[in-house]
């Protein structure tokens, strides 16, 4: 498997949840293909706009999304909690 993407639509907003490309397929356009496939599915399901949350420190992902015309809409903090 080259990669995977998850997406959903809520209140006419399509959202990509997870996206991953296997290391041996990176740099070959698979990320763009997966985003475009998710966009297509979301628009087919009634989305009027798209949202892709990511970490701003994930520079490869940010570069990918910017190359597809996405812009930063908002910034926030995410807290991760672990219980040992």
UniProtKB/TrEMBL annotation:
Residues 1-84 form the N-acetyltransferase domain. Keywords: Acyltransferase, Transferase. The keyword Transmembrane does not apply. It comes from the Bacteria. Signal peptide: none annotated. Pfam families: Acetyltransf_1 (PF00583). The keyword Cell cycle does not apply. PROSITE patterns: GNAT. One of its GO terms (molecular function) is acyltransferase activity, transferring groups other than amino-acyl groups. This is Peptide alpha-N-acetyltransferase.
């Amino acid at each position: 498997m080259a990669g995977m993407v998850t997406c959903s639509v809520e209140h006419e907003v399509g959202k990509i949840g997870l996206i991953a490309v296997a290391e041996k397929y990176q740099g070959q356009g698979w990320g763009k293909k997966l985003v475009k496939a998710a966009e297509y599915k979301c628009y087919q399901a009634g989305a009027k706009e798209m949202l892709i949350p990511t970490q701003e420190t994930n520079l490869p992902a940010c570069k990918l999304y910017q190359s597809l015309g996405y812009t930063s809409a908002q910034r926030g903090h995410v807290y991760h909690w672990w219980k040992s």
